[in-house]
Amino acid sequence: MSQFGKEIKKLGFGFMRLPMLEDGEHTDIEQVKKMVDQFMEAGCTYFDTAYVYGKDGESEKAMRAALVERYPREKYTIATKLNAWLACDSEEEWTSTCSTPSRTTTGSAMRNGISGSTWRN
User: Fold this and answer.
1) Is the torsion defined by CA of 68, 73, 76, 78 positive or negative?
2) In degrees, to the nearest 5, what angle opens at C-alpha 17 toward C-alphas 11 and 20?
3) What are the residues whose beta carbons fall under 8 Å from the beta carbon of 85, sequence distance 6 or more?
4) Side-chain-facing half-sphere of 114: CA atoms under 13 Å
5) What average pLDDT does this structure show over 41-69?
6) Which pTM does this prediction carry?
7) 57, 76, 98, 101: which has the fewest C-beta neighbours closer than 10 Å?
8) What percentage of the chain reaches a pLDDT higher than 90?
9) Which of 43, 95, 39, 42 is nearest to 67 (CA)?
10) 14: β partners
């Protein structure tokens, strides 16, 4: 049982390396939708992503299209990573007092299409 009162199966769906279209630049969203559907049909509900998975948040955008826009929010759990170096404005800030993790998690929530009421920093 998680700290939020949900039972989470041990198997998770990672959005790190997704099938790509022939152009090699964009995720094959239709294929990812099929994969997500099979995963959900098997009773699994835990999904993992991060901004750095793919170019310019491609993984998070794919998750939004394949999962968030297609399933009720209470049916799945999403994990992401805090990319601390992305939260800093300079290398100097990174090495001294970088303390803006909410900036990266807020951006991640926006790309994923998750509302603030269901996103926990």
Assistant:
1) positive
2) 130
3) 94, 98
4) 25
5) 91
6) 0.71
7) 101
8) 42
9) 39
10) 48
Q: How many CB atoms lie within 10 A of CB 110?
A: 15
CB 43 within 8 A of CB 52: no
> Is the CB of residue 95 less than 8 Å from the CB of residue 78?
no
- Average confidence (pLDDT) over 22-51: 94
Residue with structure tokens 């990319």? 83
**pLDDT value at residue 51:** 82
**Contact (CB, 8 A) for 6 and 44:** no
Return the closest-CA partner of residue 53 out of 12, 104, 17. 17
Long-range contacts of the stretch 3-6 (C-beta < 8 A, 24+)? 4/120, 6/77
